[in-house]
Structure formats: structure tokens, C-alpha cells
Amino acid sequence: MKTKAILTLGFLAITTLIMQAMQASAATTNLEQNIRFDLVFYEQGPTNITTQGMHILVNRLRVTTKDIIRAIGTATTNSYSANARLLLVTDIASTNGSGAIVVRDGTNSVDVSRYFMITNSELKVFGLTSKGKDNDWDHHPNSGLHLGSVGTTYSILYLAMVGTNLNVSLNVDGFDATSHTVISKSGMTLALNETEASVTGTGTDALGKPAVVQGAITILGCNLTTQ
């Protein structure tokens, strides 16, 4: 059964993460997830008039996470390497589920939450499957892991990116499917939420040129760290 195989692999991959969190009960344990942008900026191009007629062009500019990081680096006077990542960092003990958005470059982390406003629509549609501890596909005897529930919330994601000295701006929204997985081991529980959104809206590029924007934003991954 394909579902059982996938979940078994997920259990094995996440066992170490749960164990790390259990062993670090005196420290703060953070869940780190990658934020990725894959957008296309549609911008007004030049008008060319020739003897054959007039051509009004549209320029298409791809904007990815690296471009967002570069823009933040310029605004904060930081020079990030090509390996820098944009992360959502959440304390797993937090009761409100909110986290900080940081740029991580090697061992250097900069909180850039002030440049982002992310919310979801009031209307949400939610589906959930809750599994008992004796269910054969949600309990892995060798790892001791138990999949308590899985589900998905459908809503509209709103994301704005603005700030002083920031030379790129975004104001987008769109269909958001956020998956939820609750995994437990020996009384320790990890709630994992992963977001995939298709968005449209407006923005400006690094040169200040306005654009109609279309693309995808994702928040994915499950890396636990302690401090």
C-alpha cells in the first residue's frame, strides 16, 4: 500500500528529530522550515515603432527566493552568500504557532520578520483524519512514533513585503493549502504545518518598476534545532 510506505519512511526520517527535542527539554527547540518564492513579474516593456507597425512589449522577470534575500540584504546592509536561506523559525512549545522569519547564512542569522506581513482569510475549510494508536499504518513499532492526525486547511493567503530601504515590494494573495501532521513519541508531540500557495497580485522589482505578479510561495520542511 503506497500510503503506508510513504508514512513509514516519514516516521523513520522524523524519529531523530523527535529524539533531539526530547533530549533537549531544558533548551528551546525550534522548528525550521524553508520559505520559497517562485514568482513571475509581468512588466510593461518598450514600445517599438517601425515601418512595419507598432509593437508594445511585455517583459517577464523571474523572481525567486534568492532575489528576495538579495533585496533584504541591500535594505539591511548585509551581503549574503549564494547559500543563504529564508526560514520560518518556530518555537515548538509556542501556543500561538507564530514564528520569526530569518535569513540564515552559515552560522549567521538575521531576523527579517519586519519586512513581511502574512495572514490567512477568516474563512477556512478544514479536513482531518485522526488515527488511533493501534492503527497499523500510523504506528511504527521500531521507532515508537505515532501519527496522531493528518489534515489540510484551505484558505486564502495574504502576503505583503514592504519596508524602509527595501527595493522590492510584494502584495499578493491566493489559494493556500496548508497540511497538518501531528506526530508523537513518548509524550513529546510535534505539530508540523506545511504551506503551498498559488498567488497573484502586484509588486515592484529591484529597479522600482511596477509589475503584475503570479507564482507560488511555499513553507516546507522539518528541521529541529536547539539553543
Structural description of this entry:
- This protein is 15% helix and 58% strand.
- The protein is mainly beta.
- It has one domain (2-46, 53-226).
- Strands 1, 2, 3, 4, 5, 6, 7, 8, 9, 10, 11 and 12 form a 12-stranded antiparallel sheet that branches.
- The longest helix has 22 residues, at 2-23.
- The chain is globular.
- It starts with a helix and ends with a strand.
- Mean pLDDT is 82; it is low at 1-13 and 135-140.
Quick structural gist:
By secondary structure, this protein is mainly β. Helices cover 15% and strands 58% of the residues.
Annotate the secondary structure layout:
Elements: H1 2-23, E1 29-50, E2 53-64, H2 65-75, E3 85-91, E4 100-105, E5 108-111, E6 116-120, E7 125-130, E8 139-140, E9 145-161, E10 169-185, E11 188-204, E12 210-226
Antiparallel strand pairs: 1-2, 1-3, 1-12, 3-4, 4-5, 6-9, 7-9, 8-9, 9-10, 10-11, 11-12
Structural class: mainly beta
The topology string of helices and strands comes to HEEHEEEEEEEEEE
User: What form results from the Cα inertia axes?
Assistant: globular
Distance between the termini: 40 Å
Count the helices. How many? Answer: 2
Question: How would you sum up the major sheet?
Answer: 12 strands, antiparallel
- Sequence stretches where pLDDT stays below 50 over 5 or more residues: 1-13, 135-140
User: Could you report the average pLDDT, rounded to the nearest whole number?
Assistant: 82
Radius of gyration: 21 Å
Extended strand count: 12
Q: How many discrete domains?
A: 1
Strand content: over 45%
**Helical coverage, percent range:** 10-25%
